[in-house]
Amino acid sequence: MTTAPRPRDSAATRAALLAAARALFAERGYDGTTVRGVADRAGVNQALLFRYFGNKEALFAEAVSEQALAPLSEGPPETLLERMLTTMFDDAAGSAMFFAVLSSGGRAGEAVRAELGAAYRSAFAALAETDDPVDADLRATLLLSWLLGLGQARPEIGTVDGVVVAHVLRGARALLRG
């Protein structure tokens, strides 16, 4: 008796590769993640990874960008700061992905950081209470830089709880309000 071949499901394979990549990039960073490791975790041949994504850089860009950009579209603009802080500082919400992006070297990390930075800077500038677009962009850039610095200093800050998030939220709002 022969075993029937497994039915092909390209959407499921692609989703499995993205899920495996997100987990490994979050755990090991870009440099510590291999295409073989992603394929093994997804339970597929690594040739499929190259078929769907072309290379590790493209896989990284898609895997992390989608998750890191999610707070921008998951609610109204006035709650963006709360959503971003929750995502950045709440382990259950995927903070590891932000830190994977921050610590990723090479072209892949630079490209993703540039994409995310532009998207968040634009969203923060839209929240700035000023009629001067140059000032709005400056406030957004300062806020983004501060938040990324806080993310990198998280080990020194310790447990990020509601008190820490409330302080950061007040500071962020003050910067945007002027």
UniProtKB/TrEMBL annotation:
GO terms for molecular function: DNA-binding transcription factor activity; transcription cis-regulatory region binding. Residues 11-71 form the HTH tetR-type domain. The keyword Lipoprotein does not apply. Residues 34-53 bind DNA. Pfam families: TetR_C_16 (PF17920), TetR_N (PF00440). PROSITE patterns: HTH_TETR_1 (PS01081), HTH_TETR_2 (PS50977). The keyword DNA-binding applies. Keywords: DNA-binding. It comes from the Bacteria. InterPro entries: DNA-bd_HTH_TetR-type_CS, Homeodomain-like_sf, HTH-type_TetR-like_transc_reg, HTH_TetR, Tet_transcr_reg_TetR-rel_C_sf, TetR_C_16. PANTHER family: HTH-TYPE TRANSCRIPTIONAL REGULATOR RUTR, TRANSCRIPTIONAL REGULATORY PROTEIN. This is TetR/AcrR family transcriptional regulator. It comes from Pseudonocardia petroleophila.
